[in-house]
Amino acid sequence: MNTARIVRILSLAVQVFLPSVKDMLLMWRIARSGWFDRLYYRNQIRGLHPIWRLVPMRHYLLRGERMGFSPHPEFSPQGYLRFNPDVAAAGLSPLGHFLTLGLAEGRSARSSRASAAKVEVSPPHDGRIPRFDPKRRKAPFAIHLHLHYPDLWPEFRDILITLDIQFDLFVTLTWQGKKTDWLADQIAEAIPTAQVFTLPNRGRDILPFVRLINAGALDGYEAVCKLHGKKSLHRNDGDTWRRHLVSGILPNGLATQLDHFLSDSDAAFWVADGQRYAVKTWWGCNREKTKALLRRIEMDLPNDHDFPAGSIYWAKPLMIGMIKALHLDDALFELEEGQIDGTLAHAFERGIGAIAKAAGQTVRQSSELRAKIRPSPRAPRFVSAFYLPQFHPIAENDAWWGPGYTEWSAVTSGTSVFPGHLQPSRPADFGFYDLRLPKTLAAQAALAGRAGIDAFCVYHYWFGGKRLLEEPLDRLLMEPDIDFPFYLCWANESWRRNWDGLSGEVLVAQDYKPDFETDLVASTLPYMQDARYQRPDGQRPRFVVYRPSDLPAPEQNIARMRRAWRRAGIGEVEIGAVAFHVTGEAEVAEGLFDFWIEMPPHGLVKNESYVFGGAAGNLMNDASPVPGFSGVIYDYSKIAQLSVDPKYRRTLPSRTIAGIMPSWDNTARRKVRAHIARGGSPATFRKWLREMHETVLETSYRNELFINAWNEWGEKAMLEPSQTFGHLYLDVLSEVTSNKHGASVNPEQVHA
């Protein structure tokens, strides 16, 4: 080795391993900031010397920055200098200035203004995506590819035709005239099953993805992959970044990696390594738009969360459904003007990470999928849901509320009382059904059963011999072939007009006449003698008392009821009661009932839960309710958090069945006097349900789960499919019941 070469090696070693104090300070600041991605940086430079590969940050500071290489996918040194000429004139390091001064001054990590000369103007085009048939045949997976630049198709074609999974391909193309038609033909020739749509140049890759979701194209898949060209006129590293992002989620052996992703219940998105960003560092100009986006599903910005950067990822079905629930349309997306920050598309990228966090999930990077996934707790042994038989006209409701009144009359009149309030709530699959039709009950039970619900706990309205709302079950008894598992809950409270926030006038009084127990038991016999009446312990039919404290002499009343059932030939009955009605005119001994039912939100709303109407007043700021609202609003997530708190659970009676609610909002009934659990959604329901599954269900009575409710539409406590969330609540429930039933909800197989 000659002397000159030795000198060069020693000089390089000094540069690499003996930085100045100033450089050491800058390196420390960069390392802490998270703005240097080692893997991303090294992948930009082919043939990088092994020494530099060991210390890529030193290479960047000594050489790479001047050469125009980016330290991170979201930082362009050239763009920063171009639009910050004061930094360029001073000869400062772009990244060094950004971290010491620029970030605090609000300067963009990339160019803050688009070059008007570089904005491509596409011809006008009214592209449409038709609504998809949910019953069509599907592959297990879907891939959506959005292409703005036709020259990228060969690269994606070569990747897609070698994948070792079955997938349906959806391609959206930016309409650019005849060359787009030519590209569509090329795609059809290479992959004949691909469905190709040409769309106007709006919303980048995000709006085409949203439009496919809104059309139902991406429903019903085990996972959905989102791809796009990742090529920008304001970047010189788009090809490198794209290839890193795509290869990270479409690797060799994709099927195995997908299995890891699907088996990881905590994963919502799968991204390439280095593409999980912390939003606190990457807000840019997008905080307010993200806040407005999440408000569309009653969600606040979390204090911190990660998001899938680069917009190339795999997504679980819950995330696809929650995106659909945002109800984004074309008009919300800005016209294309070359913006690189501050648009709805940028806010969307950050917002979906917040939705994942609300669901108790996260963004997984490729290398993390190899980690061992913790085993799931066992499924609940028996799942019940309260069931309201109110949805049909009766003479009494005609007299009290007007001709033809049913629960739907209230539901459809619900109005939004604060920004983003999800009212009114409307049914999806079954429409505004009439429960006098047994086929409706059959369809409900089929859908519930596939989600893991074992029985409906149907309200039994008996008032001293007078029956109300009995027709649905009575007609069911005449249809023995309909599979509708159920048992009764005696709704033993008087009906009052304050049901809708009015006078409190008693409409039907609950009359506890002497020996009422015999007549009550007689009213239950036709149902208990039906083969579909449930015996969760395998022996005793179950019966629930809604308000045990309203009984005049609970101990004597329950004993007489038990004797009456025995005399009627039913035998022993398993009697339970709702746990929150344990204080009142009569004292109820804890041991009087065989079990108790936890019924959220009752007993869970504490001072710290309120965001409006509590002791702290109004905490909703710019999301405050309309003037004149005199109800209360509390945080759904805080209710959920308290529910799994060991201190709270110790206050419940022993032998309590753990309870949960999908949401709660009686605006439809009480209008401006409503009680609202703000933020109830399939995402927050999932987080609550998973935490309950992992902690509470082990100590629940017989490992059972009780849900409030299946169809309380007037209180928005329903699992039934809605126009807002579709089947998502049922899909979430099936996650914790799948070990028992071996199947999740398939909306294509269940129709009224």
UniProtKB/TrEMBL annotation:
Which InterPro entries has this protein been placed in?
A: RgpF, WbsX
Could you tell me the superkingdom of the organism this chain comes from? Bacteria
Please give the PANTHER family that the UniProt record associates with this protein: GLYCOSYLTRANSFERASE (PTHR41244:SF1), RHAMNAN SYNTHESIS F (PTHR41244)
Protein name per UniProt: Rhamnan synthesis protein F
Please tell me the species this chain comes from: Pseudooceanicola nitratireducens
